[in-house]
Amino acid sequence: MYNLFFYLYLSFSGLAAIISISMWLDYFRKIDVFEPEKIKNLVLAMLIGCITPFLSIYLYRLIHLAGYDLNGEFYNDLFYTIFAIGANEELSKIVGVLIVFRVFKNKINEPIDYLVYAGVTALGFSIIENFKYFN
Q1: Beta carbons of 97 and 81 less than 8 angstroms apart
Q2: Secondary structure class of 42 (helix, strand, coil)
Q3: What pTM did the predictor assign?
Q4: C-alpha distances in Å from residue 1, one per residue of 4, 5, 7, 70
Q5: What is the pLDDT of residues 49-78, one digit of tens each?
Q6: 51-70 burial by CB neighbour count: b if 16+ within 10 A, else e?
Q7: From the centroid of its chain, how far is CA 40?
């Protein structure tokens, strides 16, 4: 019985994730009114975004090897959350966005394209980040 509920939970969660991703991709296509991006380009940008969290995971491991972690002290935890968590993840996202801008430099021909590709790349990052939180 437990396995049935677990698989139903996973199925509905996966379906909800697919619907959410589809809605966001459709939104990012539609905000580019004059020349919508091809869906294959957006999916590729999203997949590049899916790779970037592994950079921050690697950096987390280096930070923990250096002995820096949350320990309950106010200033330590403040600096850890700002620099080890926040800056680490945001820099990883920026790396992904810069890679996407480089890969699609010939496809980006309007100012809105920068926002579209950056948003889709961040969407890819968030997909993997959310799976990481489930573990």
Answers
A1: no
A2: helix
A3: 0.84
A4: 5, 7, 10, 39
A5: 999 999 999 998 999 998 888 999 999 999
A6: bbbebbeebeeebeeeeeee
A7: 18
Cβ atoms within 10 A of the Cβ of 3, count?
7
- Identify residue 94 by its one-letter amino acid code: I
Task: Please tell me what DSSP assigns to residue 73.
Answer: -
Length, in residues, of the chain? 135
What is the per-residue DSSP string for 109-128?
Answer: -SHHHHHHHHHHHHHHHHHH
Instruction: Provide the Cα torsion 61, 135, 82, 65; round to 10°.
Output: -20
